[in-house]
Design a protein that fits this description.
About 30% of the residues lie in helices and about 15% in strands. It is an alpha/beta fold. The protein folds into 2 domains: about 240 residues, Alpha-Beta Barrel (TIM Barrel), CATH 3.20.20; about 60 residues, no CATH class. Strands 1-2-3-4-5-6-7-8-9 form a 9-stranded mixed beta sheet. A 3-stranded antiparallel beta sheet has the order 10-11-12, with no helix packed on it. Bound molecules: iron/sulfur cluster.
Length: about 375
Amino acid sequence: METWQKILAQSVVKPRDLAARLGVDEKEIEDIVGPYPMRITPTVLATIKEPGDAIWKQVVPDRAEMEDFDAPNDPLEEDLMSPVPHLVHRYPDRALLMVTNQCPIYCRFCTRKRLVGKPGFIKKGDLDKAVAYLREHTEVRDVILSGGDPLLLPDHLLEKVFKALRSIPHLEIVRIGSRVPGTLPQRITPQLCEIVKKYHPIYMNLHFNHPDELTPEVTAACGMLADAGIPLGAQTVLLKGVNDDPEIMKRLMHKLLLARVKPYYLYQADLTKGTNHFRTTVETGLEIIRALQGHTSGMAVPHFVIDAPGGGGKVPMLPGDYLVHMDEDGVVLNNYEHKTFRYPQPGNGHGPFDMAQGRRELPMAGAPASTPRGAHPRSSDCCEGSS
Ligand code: SF4
């Protein structure tokens, strides 16, 4: 057994042990962990500061999980989009390969609550079937390894999966979605990094929801992955009582960047059965984006998305008042300070937009469009994306 496997084995999985460590009601927890298993690694347990805090809420079973009767088990209809076992093919050029149902922790809000916790890793026969499907589907250029958590596969199995995927000539990118660096940082070993380096380009999207998760040990684990040449992104789920606050979210995004992890997605919580108590309004997410955009570096602003129920895929969400009006002459924009600017369309047959002379009135319905004195609408300059 490797060190990280021994540490994983010390995780809290039994209600009795959780009661002893955190003083919870053992009987109540027992009723919940039957259908929805629990695992809390020593790293995560050490991060809990007090009952009900942001880390506690993510990992300690809650009675509310059993009071959610109407929601679907599989709101994204992944099971219906699975042509062969373990593979989900929803988008045109990419597919999801679920290589295990094991995770370092069992997040109480997990979209795959119906699956996670079951033992074992993908069997050779199933991996062969998935690879055969991908080989036939030449339009798939990107495979996302997920689960469960792929980084819980022992090194030799993970390498088998990489090798099998890299035998597919048209496959360009392999991505890994993982919560391991933030919850079981001991798993990020030099040997693991050496294996990954052989199969580049491999990207990782790491799951983080609260700034307290970025401990020095976790940050160091992310640094090892970055040093192995793996571009790191972060996926965050918007969760009531955990991170539904602009200041907390800003601190999280800043700490991620310090750990060399680029914020990627902020997800509106899915409709999964047993997770309703984590859901926020959509406006909460929009307010968070509004509080980040322009107020801090664009590097720190994730894409806010709703994974549309019924298999609609990710739909980007932006506060609606940035674009006030658009027609063939130009657009009217609101910036992060709620100041209004205009940007002209090219070649609209009316000559260049006159910046100096005051602006042609753009026909628009009811929106004010005065450009503050001295504030010049930015046209095509060369620092796009530098903020
Ligand atoms: S680590 Fe990911 S897959 Fe596993 S329980 Fe948490 S959210 Fe679900």
